[in-house]
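Anyone else keep sequences and structure tokens together like this?

Example one:
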Amino acid sequence: MNFGLLLSKLPHVEESRPYYDAMLSLHVREPHRFAAFWHNLKRFIAS
């Protein structure tokens, strides 16, 4: 079952969307150290 389809049916979802979007924009995502290492390793091997 896809719960994403049910979210639009819940009350007050559209009213709360700007709040949650603002909260997510406050959290600057930085790559995980292992993921960054792996990405750099793959780039080194590919070159």
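And example two:
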Amino acid sequence: MSGEQPWKVDERTLSKKYRTDVNRLIRAWKKGLNDQEITFRTGVKPSTLYLIKQDIELAHRRHRLAQKKQALAQAQALGQYQIFFNPNL
């Protein structure tokens, strides 16, 4: 995993979709601000903020699932798997 590039969310697409600066919202979350403070400072509705957070989490979950599938495929290709039914083979 050390050779892989870090995962990044497509901020430009989300910004167009929700018509707000998603990069600014992500920076605020990283600073430790809660959703109420972000809503007050940026003027973004709480429901929109919730949808943006869900989209980011879903994209991250999909990325992690793809990594797991790729790692599993590589492990099977190398023959590193467990035999559950007959371990003495």
